């Protein structure tokens, strides 16, 4: 996998990508669409036979990464269809490590909205209290994950959980906390715009979060 990524490197694009992502880790310059297609072929040709081996492979890619595309590869491996049955609560330590050490939106958000969201849907009795715990964590990226984990739920959204995960971060001035709040509310507004407007007004949300939450609604 590493060999394939490095063969596809485009040094002329690498510096631009690194600057755009504000990443200390260098890029190879491999664009997203060809990278994903190449990795699908590599993963399909190198099947992993057990959940523990899959988790070890993911963490090896993650921990040993020298280029950011290798981190993206680890995330893509977590979501590969061959390993759908491996998505159990045993994955939580792996995802927590990736979220905390990734600590940037391009790494955290897919894990939050896809992997953690899927686990919440599959194991609500265990995941709901965990997301509430993360919502109060000192780590920004765990709080962002708790806020965003229902972004794809639409009418299945647990609004009590959504609002409970948002509220500990309402006073946070960090851009990524405020952006997450607005994004989560904007996604839910596609299902229940009145409830989002009510919540925004009731909580006095202003600035970035408010603009993001109400972006597609005919309100001011």
Question: How does this model look, in words?
Answer:
The chain is built from 13 helices and no strands. α3 (32-45) packs across α5 (68-78) and α11 runs antiparallel to α12. 66% of the residues lie in helices and 0% in strands. The chain is mostly helical and 220 residues long. It is globular. The mean pLDDT is 93. The termini are far apart.
Number of helices: 13
How far the N terminus sits from the C terminus, by CA atoms, comes to: 50 Å
Order of helices and strands: HHHHHHHHHHHHH
Main sheet, how many strands, which sense, barrel? none
Strand content: under 5%
Helix content: 55-70%
User: Based on helices, strands and strand pairing, what is the structural class?
Assistant: mainly alpha
Total beta strand runs: 0
Mean pLDDT: 93
Low-confidence stretches: none
Gyration radius, rounded: 18 Å
Shape assignment: globular
Please tag this protein with its features.
66% helix; 0% strand; 220 residues; 13 helices; mainly alpha; globular
Structure summarized in a few sentences:
The protein has 220 residues and is an all-alpha fold. The chain contains 13 helices and no strands.
Task: Describe the SSE topology.
Blueprint: H1 2-7, H2 11-21, H3 32-45, H4 51-63, H5 68-78, H6 92-102, H7 105-122, H8 124-135, H9 140-148, H10 159-166, H11 175-189, H12 193-203, H13 207-213
Helix pairs in contact: 3-5, 4-5, 5-7, 6-7, 7-8, 7-9, 8-9, 8-10, 9-10, 9-11, 11-12, 11-13
């Amino acid at each position: 996998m590493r060999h394939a990524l490095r063969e596809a490197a485009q040094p002329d694009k690498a510096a631009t990508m690194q600057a755009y992502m504000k990443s200390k880790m260098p890029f190879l310059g491999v664009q997203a669409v060809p990278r994903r297609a190449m990795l699908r072929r590599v993963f399909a040709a190198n099947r992993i036979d057990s959940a523990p081996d899959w988790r070890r492979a993911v963490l090896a890619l993650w921990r040993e990464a020298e280029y950011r595309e290798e981190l993206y590869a680890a995330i893509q491996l977590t979501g590969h269809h061959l390993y759908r049955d491996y998505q159990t609560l045993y994955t939580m330590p792996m995802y927590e490590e990736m979220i905390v050490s990734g600590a940037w939106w391009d790494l955290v958000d897919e894990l939050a909205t896809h992997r953690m969201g899927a686990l919440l849907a599959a194991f609500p009795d265990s995941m709901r209290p965990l997301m509430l715990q993360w919502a109060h964590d000192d780590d920004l990226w765990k709080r962002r994950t708790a806020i965003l984990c229902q972004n794809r739920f639409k009418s299945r959204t647990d609004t009590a959980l959504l609002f409970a995960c948002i509220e500990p971060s309402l006073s946070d001035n960090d851009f990524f906390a405020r952006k997450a709040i607005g994004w989560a509310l904007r996604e839910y507004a596609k299902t229940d715009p009145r409830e989002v407007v009510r919540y925004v007004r009731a909580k006095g949300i202003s600035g970035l979060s408010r603009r993001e939450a109400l972006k597609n609604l005919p309100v001011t």
